[in-house]
Design goal:
It is a single chain. 40% of the residues are buried. The two termini are 32 Å apart. By secondary structure, this protein is mainly beta.
Length: 308
């Protein structure tokens, strides 16, 4: 295989904290810059499923816990755990616990994928937040992790709230710059995605599996669904095995998991239809298939709504 597992790296949590505090803002770079040395992060060292105080009562589904290691990056963990990028702002013991205080060795709570995480802005109320995500305010009040019981509870800016079953708000789409030269490698997608490969959908998109699994023969070529810049390429111990993540520079990202081979490098510009890897069964997989995720403004979206 072209890529091997990562080794030691310095703590990268705080850099991700600043990113995640923006919750609903675009979270990936809008400009192509010379690639930095790839961020390395350690494998999953403890993963248990519990029902802690944080999410109980009305919502009884198990919550995954993860023990942070030096070199972990919350944004990277969002991709490898199959979560919205903004969700990683709600991994603390409560919504008022400072993200900056997270340290290696500390267990974080990974909310189920059907929760959204909202970071409170100046002057926001519970009613306004509920309206933003098209839910009943009681949904926010009845989530114990939020530690709010009244609609008139004052909310300090920067506090985070979990929103069960919320719908991500509409946001203006980034437009690519004009003036492309004919021979220039263009890192900006057009948002018109193509299928990453031909195959049978073995598992669809639902509230717990926010991706498409596409069964296909081992070694079949996997294609970039749109132009973009490769931001992750290599091994993930957490479940996806060999995977590629592409930032399409127009507020979309795509992830291609369980590959048998990775054929691109981090920082590389790829074009729609370019072969980026081959179907495999690496990581947490029971047979050859492609795990395909699409994020819109960092939120996991149903790829079928964006594919022809």
């Amino acid at each position: 295989m072209r890529h091997r597992r990562a080794g030691a790296a310095t703590l990268a949590l705080l850099g991700a904290v600043a990113l995640l505090a923006l919750a609903v803002a675009p979270v990936l770079a809008q400009k192509v810059v010379p690639p930095e040395p790839p961020k390395l992060f350690f494998p999953l060292v403890e993963s248990t499923f519990t029902s802690p105080r944080g999410i109980s009562g009305l919502f009884v589904d198990p919550v995954q816990t993860y023990v942070l290691r030096e070199g972990d990056n919350l944004a990277d963990l969002a991709f490898d755990l199959g979560r919205d990028l903004s969700a990683m702002a709600c991994v603390t013991p409560s919504g008022t616990y400072p993200l900056q205080e997270l340290r290696p060795g500390q267990a974080i709570l990974i909310p189920p994928p059907y929760f959204l995480c909202h970071t409170v802005a100046q002057g926001e109320t519970i009613a306004a937040i509920a309206k933003r995500y098209q839910v009943d305010p009681l949904v926010i009040l009845k989530t114990p992790w939020n530690e709010v019981t009244r609609l008139d509870t004052p909310l300090a800016p920067g506090r985070r709230l979990l929103v069960y079953g919320g719908i991500p708000p509409e946001m203006p789409r980034t437009r690519p710059p004009s003036g492309r030269s004919p021979d220039e490698l263009w890192p900006y997608g057009d948002g018109n995605f193509i299928w990453p490969l031909a195959g049978r959908i073995s598992q669809g998109f639902d509230r717990s599996h926010r991706a498409l699994d596409i069964a296909a023969p081992l070694g079949r070529a996997v294609l970039a669904s749109d132009n973009g810049v490769v931001i992750k390429a290599g091994w993930s111990d957490i479940g996806y095995g060999l995977r590629v993540v592409i930032d399409h520079q127009v507020d979309y990202t795509t992830l291609y998991g369980h590959l048998s081979e990775v054929l691109v490098d981090e920082g590389q510009v790829v074009e729609k239809g370019q072969v980026i890897g081959r179907v495999g069964s690496t990581g947490n997989s029971t047979g050859p298939h492609l795990h395909f995720e699409l994020r819109d403004f960092g939120y996991l979206a149903n790829p079928l709504q964006n594919l022809p």
